[in-house]
Amino acid sequence: IITYDKLLIEGLVRIKPIRQDTNRNLEIKNDLLIVVHTNSDLFGSAKNGINEEIKYFSKKPSSKIIFLMSDFSQRGQLFWYTKLRKPDFALFSKGGEHTICLKSSNVTIVGGYWGACHEQTVNGIINNSKNKKLIINFPMDAIFTSGRLNLKDYWELCSKDSEKFINWIGVGTYNEIYIDNKLVEKQNTYRKDKVIILKFWSKTIRH
Question: Is residue 13 classed as helix, strand or coil in its secondary structure?
Fold first, then answer.
Protein backbone atom coordinates (compact mmCIF):
# COMPACT_ATOMS: atom_id res chain seq x y z
CA ILE A 1 0.00 0.00 0.00
CA ILE A 2 1.40 3.40 -1.02
CA THR A 3 0.60 5.90 1.70
CA TYR A 4 0.85 9.67 1.61
CA ASP A 5 3.65 9.53 4.21
CA LYS A 6 5.56 7.04 2.05
CA LEU A 7 5.29 9.34 -0.94
CA LEU A 8 6.61 12.19 1.17
CA ILE A 9 9.56 10.14 2.36
CA GLU A 10 10.33 8.97 -1.18
CA GLY A 11 10.10 12.56 -2.35
CA LEU A 12 12.50 13.71 0.34
CA VAL A 13 15.00 11.06 -0.74
CA ARG A 14 15.17 12.79 -4.12
CA ILE A 15 15.61 16.29 -2.70
CA LYS A 16 18.01 17.81 -0.22
CA PRO A 17 16.32 18.87 3.02
CA ILE A 18 16.86 22.52 3.90
CA ARG A 19 18.49 23.05 7.28
CA GLN A 20 16.74 25.52 9.56
CA ASP A 21 18.84 28.24 11.16
CA THR A 22 17.82 29.27 14.66
CA ASN A 23 19.75 32.55 14.84
CA ARG A 24 17.05 35.01 13.81
CA ASN A 25 18.92 38.23 14.66
CA LEU A 26 21.06 38.25 11.55
CA GLU A 27 23.12 41.24 10.47
CA ILE A 28 23.73 41.20 6.72
CA LYS A 29 26.39 43.46 5.22
CA ASN A 30 26.09 42.08 1.69
CA ASP A 31 23.64 42.51 -1.15
CA LEU A 32 20.77 40.27 -0.18
CA LEU A 33 18.14 38.07 -1.84
CA ILE A 34 15.20 37.06 0.34
CA VAL A 35 12.95 34.26 -0.90
CA VAL A 36 9.57 34.32 0.85
CA HIS A 37 7.28 31.29 1.21
CA THR A 38 8.08 29.53 -2.03
CA ASN A 39 6.16 26.45 -0.90
CA SER A 40 2.79 28.21 -1.01
CA ASP A 41 2.57 29.21 -4.69
CA LEU A 42 0.49 26.21 -5.73
CA PHE A 43 0.30 27.25 -9.34
CA GLY A 44 3.96 28.13 -9.85
CA SER A 45 3.25 31.52 -11.41
CA ALA A 46 6.58 32.89 -10.14
CA LYS A 47 8.61 29.68 -10.11
CA ASN A 48 10.82 30.37 -13.13
CA GLY A 49 11.50 33.96 -12.10
CA ILE A 50 12.41 32.94 -8.55
CA ASN A 51 14.83 30.29 -9.76
CA GLU A 52 16.45 32.77 -12.14
CA GLU A 53 17.02 35.23 -9.29
CA ILE A 54 18.48 32.52 -7.07
CA LYS A 55 20.76 31.38 -9.89
CA TYR A 56 21.98 34.95 -10.40
CA PHE A 57 22.63 35.66 -6.72
CA SER A 58 24.26 32.27 -6.10
CA LYS A 59 26.96 33.22 -8.62
CA LYS A 60 27.74 36.50 -6.85
CA PRO A 61 30.35 35.80 -4.17
CA SER A 62 29.54 39.02 -2.35
CA SER A 63 25.80 38.33 -1.95
CA LYS A 64 23.70 36.35 0.51
CA ILE A 65 20.52 34.31 0.03
CA ILE A 66 17.94 33.86 2.80
CA PHE A 67 14.88 31.60 2.66
CA LEU A 68 11.89 32.51 4.83
CA MET A 69 9.96 29.27 5.28
CA SER A 70 6.64 28.72 7.02
CA ASP A 71 6.98 24.94 7.13
CA PHE A 72 10.13 22.86 7.75
CA SER A 73 8.17 19.59 8.02
CA GLN A 74 8.44 16.81 5.47
CA ARG A 75 5.49 18.25 3.56
CA GLY A 76 6.93 21.75 3.63
CA GLN A 77 10.31 20.50 2.44
CA LEU A 78 8.75 18.56 -0.41
CA PHE A 79 6.67 21.44 -1.72
CA TRP A 80 9.44 24.06 -1.49
CA TYR A 81 10.20 24.28 -5.19
CA THR A 82 13.48 26.20 -5.59
CA LYS A 83 16.20 24.35 -7.44
CA LEU A 84 18.86 25.60 -5.04
CA ARG A 85 18.35 24.12 -1.59
CA LYS A 86 21.42 25.40 0.24
CA PRO A 87 20.82 29.09 1.01
CA ASP A 88 23.13 30.99 3.30
CA PHE A 89 20.33 31.00 5.89
CA ALA A 90 16.87 29.45 6.16
CA LEU A 91 14.61 30.98 8.80
CA PHE A 92 11.16 30.08 10.07
CA SER A 93 8.62 32.80 9.32
CA LYS A 94 4.91 32.17 9.60
CA GLY A 95 3.74 35.37 7.93
CA GLY A 96 6.84 36.90 6.36
CA GLU A 97 7.95 38.55 9.61
CA HIS A 98 11.65 38.55 10.51
CA THR A 99 14.33 40.41 12.47
CA ILE A 100 17.00 40.57 9.75
CA CYS A 101 19.12 43.70 10.09
CA LEU A 102 20.34 44.83 6.67
CA LYS A 103 23.52 46.90 6.78
CA SER A 104 23.92 47.14 3.00
CA SER A 105 21.69 49.44 0.98
CA ASN A 106 20.45 46.90 -1.55
CA VAL A 107 18.00 44.01 -1.19
CA THR A 108 15.91 41.92 -3.60
CA ILE A 109 12.73 40.26 -2.29
CA VAL A 110 10.95 37.52 -4.26
CA GLY A 111 8.27 34.94 -3.61
CA GLY A 112 5.04 36.06 -2.11
CA TYR A 113 2.25 36.50 -1.47
CA TRP A 114 2.37 40.13 -2.71
CA GLY A 115 0.59 42.41 -0.27
CA ALA A 116 0.59 39.79 2.49
CA CYS A 117 3.65 37.76 3.56
CA HIS A 118 5.80 39.56 1.01
CA GLU A 119 4.73 42.94 2.42
CA GLN A 120 5.57 41.83 5.96
CA THR A 121 9.07 40.97 4.79
CA VAL A 122 9.48 44.34 3.08
CA ASN A 123 8.30 46.22 6.18
CA GLY A 124 10.71 44.25 8.35
CA ILE A 125 13.63 45.19 6.11
CA ILE A 126 12.67 48.88 6.18
CA ASN A 127 12.19 49.00 9.95
CA ASN A 128 15.37 47.07 10.76
CA SER A 129 17.68 48.66 8.19
CA LYS A 130 20.57 50.76 9.52
CA ASN A 131 20.86 52.74 6.28
CA LYS A 132 19.46 56.16 5.51
CA LYS A 133 18.92 55.07 1.90
CA LEU A 134 17.47 51.69 1.02
CA ILE A 135 16.88 50.23 -2.46
CA ILE A 136 14.41 47.34 -2.60
CA ASN A 137 14.26 45.41 -5.89
CA PHE A 138 11.14 43.57 -7.06
CA PRO A 139 11.62 41.31 -10.12
CA MET A 140 8.03 41.18 -11.36
CA ASP A 141 8.08 37.62 -12.68
CA ALA A 142 9.47 36.34 -9.36
CA ILE A 143 6.63 37.61 -7.13
CA PHE A 144 3.33 35.76 -7.05
CA THR A 145 -0.09 37.16 -6.22
CA SER A 146 -3.80 36.50 -6.75
CA GLY A 147 -5.46 34.86 -9.73
CA ARG A 148 -2.55 32.50 -10.47
CA LEU A 149 -0.57 35.52 -11.65
CA ASN A 150 2.75 37.16 -10.94
CA LEU A 151 3.42 40.90 -10.93
CA LYS A 152 4.67 40.84 -14.50
CA ASP A 153 1.28 39.48 -15.57
CA TYR A 154 -0.36 42.46 -13.83
CA TRP A 155 2.07 44.85 -15.53
CA GLU A 156 1.05 43.50 -18.91
CA LEU A 157 -2.66 43.53 -18.00
CA CYS A 158 -2.20 47.24 -17.22
CA SER A 159 -0.78 47.70 -20.74
CA LYS A 160 2.50 48.72 -19.07
CA ASP A 161 0.87 51.87 -17.73
CA SER A 162 2.87 52.71 -14.59
CA GLU A 163 0.15 54.74 -12.84
CA LYS A 164 -2.46 52.04 -13.39
CA PHE A 165 -0.03 49.33 -12.28
CA ILE A 166 0.95 51.09 -9.04
CA ASN A 167 -2.69 51.81 -8.18
CA TRP A 168 -3.71 48.24 -8.96
CA ILE A 169 -1.10 46.45 -6.87
CA GLY A 170 -1.21 49.01 -4.04
CA VAL A 171 2.12 50.46 -2.91
CA GLY A 172 2.27 52.63 0.19
CA THR A 173 5.80 52.39 1.56
CA TYR A 174 8.16 54.44 -0.54
CA ASN A 175 9.81 57.76 -1.36
CA GLU A 176 10.48 56.88 -5.00
CA ILE A 177 9.25 54.16 -7.35
CA TYR A 178 11.10 53.05 -10.48
CA ILE A 179 9.98 50.63 -13.18
CA ASP A 180 12.86 49.31 -15.28
CA ASN A 181 15.05 52.07 -13.87
CA LYS A 182 12.65 54.87 -14.89
CA LEU A 183 11.32 57.11 -12.11
CA VAL A 184 7.52 56.89 -12.23
CA GLU A 185 6.38 58.04 -8.79
CA LYS A 186 7.78 60.25 -6.03
CA GLN A 187 6.57 61.34 -2.62
CA ASN A 188 8.65 63.27 -0.13
CA THR A 189 6.47 62.85 2.93
CA TYR A 190 6.74 59.13 3.71
CA ARG A 191 9.73 59.15 6.08
CA LYS A 192 12.28 61.72 7.10
CA ASP A 193 14.83 59.31 8.58
CA LYS A 194 15.19 57.09 5.49
CA VAL A 195 14.87 57.27 1.73
CA ILE A 196 13.00 54.19 0.51
CA ILE A 197 13.43 53.46 -3.20
CA LEU A 198 11.35 50.67 -4.74
CA LYS A 199 12.54 49.28 -8.06
CA PHE A 200 10.23 47.05 -10.07
CA TRP A 201 11.82 45.11 -12.91
CA SER A 202 9.84 43.65 -15.81
CA LYS A 203 13.06 42.60 -17.54
CA THR A 204 16.39 41.18 -16.51
CA ILE A 205 18.25 44.30 -17.61
CA ARG A 206 19.67 44.86 -14.12
CA HIS A 207 21.55 41.57 -14.46
Answer: helix
